[in-house]
Amino acid sequence: MIGSRVRQYRNAKGLTMSELAERAGVAKSYLSAIERDIQTNPSIQFLDKIASVLDVDINVLLKDVTSSTYEEAAALDEEWQSLIAEAMNSGVSKEEFRDFLEYNKWKIKQK
After folding, report:
1. Taking phi first (over 0 means left), then psi (-120 to 50 degrees means alpha), and beta for anything else, what does residue 105 get?
2. Which region among 31-45, 53-67, 94-108 has the lowest average model confidence (pLDDT)?
3. Most buried residue, 24, 61, 96, 111, by CB count within 10 Å?
4. CA 50 to CA 27: how far, in whole Å?
């Protein structure tokens, strides 16, 4: 599973196994074992190095999600952060924001 995703993204980047191993600073033999699913439980540190070279989030390698799906989720998080920053900059206090959330919860329960 993880190995096939590593191979998929490596091939998409046009890298050989040797190139990926060298750029990530990992052993080619270990990378090979990962890609062939002989080694199925790589360390987070290993995956972080590989993900960095492949320009994907580590979660893309860990989970069966596409890069675009993960990027869409990250964009949503950025949108929420932007909305919160806008509320803060407009003078909305934490207490006012909490009150608003509580009001919405109450309103939903009334339906």
Report:
1. alpha
2. 53-67
3. 61
4. 11
